[in-house]
Specification:
With 227 residues, this protein is of the alpha/beta class. It is built from 10 helices and 6 strands, in the order βαβαβαβαβαβααααα.
Length: 227
């Protein structure tokens, strides 16, 4: 089901968990869903491990029907597809709401059985329609995310660590700060960035400076310039 085929939303309430590490984005998402989708947000947390800790303690009446999930966090690993697959098998629906998504990670998350993808540059109306569609048994996919899944041959295939190093470094952090964020030594962080430059050069898109890296990441949809 695509965004122009959303079904009417039932009147009963659904329980939703929001997994998002940016407080303002988390609050805005809750506000939109509470006011426009008439759902009840039962959990708000920074990342999947924190959500799993909460879920182990939560009574059955608090278990969410839907998880609105950001794939990447500033501190810590990206969402684990195996963990997501386990949540789907348990009966929960997962809607990805993410701005930074590598094609490889998106494909693995899709294979885990998520019900939809929404970009953070999409409108609040798109988010509400996606939630309604997913909660009533449908699938939601924006054209941008469909393009990511299909793949772009001009876009270098980066490992998760290379992509995280690129995002942090291109966003303005020093190499030392990048290393601290992803939990490696500075020389290892530099190696990741050097690998990124080499892969872009091999793809016929050479990048030399931090500004070049930023522009390449924006072009490839890895960094949202409005965030």
């Amino acid at each position: 089901m695509t965004e122009d085929q959303a079904v009417p939303f039932p009147r009963n309430y659904y329980r939703v968990a929001i997994v998002e590490d940016h407080a303002l984005q988390r609050e805005r998402t809750e506000e939109v869903l509470r006011d426009e989708a008439a759902v009840r947000v039962v959990c708000r947390c920074d990342d999947l491990p924190t959500f799993l800790d909460w879920l182990r303690r939560a009574p059955e009446a608090q278990r969410p029907h839907l998880i609105v999930l950001d794939l990447s966090v500033d501190r810590g690993p990206s969402a684990d597809p195996e963990v997501v697959a386990g949540l789907v098998r348990s009966g929960m629906r997962v809607l990805v709401l993410s701005a930074m998504a590598s094609p490889a990670l998106v494909r693995r998350i899709m294979q885990a059985g998520v019900s939809g993808f929404v970009g953070k540059r999409d409108s609040s109306g798109d988010l509400v329609a996606a939630v309604r569609t997913v909660l009533t048994g449908g699938q939601w996919m924006t054209p941008e995310m469909a393009g990511i899944i299909a793949g772009d041959p001009s876009r270098p295939q980066l490992s998760d660590q290379e992509e995280r190093a690129l995002l942090l470094y291109a966003s303005g952090l020093t190499m030392v700060a990048v290393a601290a964020q992803i939990g490696v030594r500075p020389d290892t962080a530099k190696k990741y960035v050097d690998n990124v430059k080499a892969k872009y050069a091999a793809a016929g898109r050479p990048v030399h400076t931090k500004t070049d890296l930023y522009k390449a990441a924006v072009r490839d949809g890895l960094i949202d310039p409005g965030r």
